[in-house]
Design brief:
Mean pLDDT: 94
Strand order of the largest sheet: 3-2-1-4-5-6-7
Largest sheet: 7 strands, parallel
Order of helices and strands: EHEHEHEHEHEHHHEHHHH
Radius of gyration: 18 Å
Helix content: 55-70%
Structural class: alpha/beta
Number of strands: 7
Strand content: 5-15%
CATH superfamily: NAD(P)-binding Rossmann-like Domain
CATH architecture: 3-Layer(aba) Sandwich
Length: 293
Amino acid sequence: MSEPAGKTVLVSGAARGIGAATARALAAQGAQLILFDVDAQPLRDLVEEIGDDRAVGTVADVRDLDAVQATVDAGIDRFGGIDFVVANAGIASYGSVLQVDPEAFRDVIDVDLVGVFHTVRAALPSVIARRGYILVVSSLAAYMAVPGLAAYNAAKAGVEHFADALRLEMAPCGVDVGTAHMSWIDTPMVQEARADLPAFDQAIAAMPGPLRQIHPVDTCAAAFVRGLARRSRRVYVPGWVGAAGWGRALLNSAVGDRLALRVMSGPVSRLDDHVAALGRSVSARVAALVTKS
């Protein structure tokens, strides 16, 4: 066990949602925090809430390796090093491959996949020096594709495999690497999709029982903190997501495709109509942040 008390944790995408809830939970257990995000005001509010003696916050875009490196270097200067990394920053786009704005698709890959690489790359020398632990935030989407979220599916599958390669590279260094896989969590990403797109709620309602549930963000944060303490290979929220990982061959077989199409074909066609009417392929908040940064 590697209890968070006295440890320094780097968290990307820390201003809202899972990142902010995880930062709060870690602070409650005595961790020191290096937090960064592009969403400046909620990041400042979070640092003020935790206390600037325990947390440092920097506005930085995970797509910019130099900015991430500067954030990491400043955090190391402040706290002496990095023990844990939570590579959490992520966004999603709306619409099928035929409908989605190509720029939005590219932004998702850049934030959710390349951004994980930048976060890990910048922190890795310090994590190696402390024989630490890295948690890469993937998703149930790495195991089970959802139509209309192709960029998100691809990025989350990509970061899982990235983490698997990193685990093998880091084993001789005493650094452990895990991935987190979550079903629907009540984050701004989900809240904004539900507000923007009636078909999103319709799609969730059409899914089998466990997939219809949206889980509290604090439940996810608690699982992440346990994962850090245990240096877990996998973190699942909720626990049944692990069974989906073991069953991914069936989920992605012709049988799985038939079941998915039976449930999802109607809502996905309506989703594209709603995206076209909306006139954008991401939430208004994400559009503003991605353009600004």
